[in-house]
Amino acid sequence: MKGFQYTIHSVLDCETGEEVFAGSFFNQDESAIFEIRRQLEDAIRNRRDPKYKCYYCNQLIKIRGKAENETKLKRMHFAHQWDSDDCPIKTSHKLTQQQIRAIKYNGQKESKLHERTKELVAASLESNRLTNKGITEVATETVRRDTSGLLTWRKPDVSAVYHSRQVVFEIQLSTTFLSVIADREYFYQQNQTFIIWIFKFFSDEFDKQRFTEKDVFYGNNQNAFIFDGEAISESKRQQDLILKCLYREPYRSGQQIAYRWQERSVGLHDLTFDDKNYKVFLFDVEGATNSIRQEIDDEQRAEWERQREIEQRQQVFEQRRQAYEEELEVGLSRARSSVHQTLSEVHAYPERRSPLLNEFAAFSLDTYGNLFTLFGQDQGYQPTEEDKSFLRITFERERLNRSHLDRTDLLTCLCLVTCLIKVKSPQKAHRLKKVYGTVFVLLSVKLDCVVGQSFQKVVQVAHTVFPGKESFAHLFLKAIERYPSPNLQKQDDRSGGKLAKKIEAFRQKNVEPDQSYDDVFRLLFPELFTQ
């Protein structure tokens, strides 16, 4: 209820030491609230360790109130026991003991309807016994004493023996305190007796359910048994005790658990007798709810693990990216130093440098693309003698000391310029750009070192042919015959001959070779086209 003020705003959770705030606590699903309500009552009656205590007086508290409907539970609140010691925030001390007793015992006397219902239940069980359906004994108002020797006893409405199980039936027509319900259930549980609470009517509308009905319902795995007119007629027809069972079936709604009401007519043979808690139910709502919750938890845990793995991968990627950038900068700096050293040796000072030498003097990540632009001009590019001298000296020097930085390293750019010079025309320069991957594979085999790739081994470059470049594999096969590569052979032997197996498999496939770029390949590798 909007504006509702709690007298006890928060309590102490004795198990966790945390503060439990009334506002958030009473805003959760009422099944959880009523479970705690039961635990508080058990603690008050010394059947379990304390659960919640008052912050102000250190006394055990309970949950009281009136539910508005399924979702608006603001009227429920924490309260002291009626007979507790004084507390600064306690509200019940103004009531007299007579008033408290009147409230406590109001409506507890049995009515004629209660008596009639009890007789019909007993008669239905007797019909079951006479037709040999499992009942072997039936009695009404029989005193059942504590088997442990304590001077305690109960007198259930109806008691029976069903397949050697002791079962009692309690007719619940009027308002009963939770303490009474909990006491009876505890007594029967301690004496290995199953209890079945029977209602004359039970609404599936939350705002029409009394607290007594809710206490029984949530305490019995959210299964309610009803013995109304239809059930009575069906019991007579089948000569057995037939009850209506109303329960909440859980189902998954996204990442939440929702419930829908289900109703079914049942006999004792349809029910589950929980030998641990001495509860009787048709549908295991708690078990089904836990299964769905476990499924959701597992998915959320898996998603969390997935997100954590993604974050870890991102961290690794970022670390590798930073390392690559550092390596790249070192490589570019080393390349520029090598270039400037060579430029000095060929006396190519700034004022005498050609466009090609200027491009190498400012060596950067853009150099590779800029070379295609330079040689792809309408008139092409005519290298000078200084260009050729620079390329020759720098190439030999870089082969001895280089870093593998894919197409950004100096050796790759030197090889590219050499290829562009060999193809001569701008048109063929554009065609070269379409097959530069295959060109670098052939160059790697010819030079016996990695060119144009970030791999460390020549055999890794060779593996990119199968299946990525199989239409040009005929050139690769000619290259490994024409340019014997000690590194390639040695590296493949160490890997178990994987490349050799790929080559053998390729030969069996009869792949049609792509000869549409032979004009480019002939200019670059004429020896591969000689007989």
From TrEMBL:
Chain ranges of the DUF6035 domain: 107-284
One Pfam family named in its UniProt record: DUF7829
InterPro entries: DUF6035 (IPR046099), DUF7829 (IPR057151), DUF7830 (IPR057152)
Domain DUF7830: from-to ranges: 17-93
Domain of life: Bacteria
Domain DUF7829: 378-527
Protein name: Competence protein
Species whose genome carries this gene: Fibrisoma montanum
Lineage: Bacteria, Pseudomonadati, Bacteroidota, Cytophagia, Cytophagales
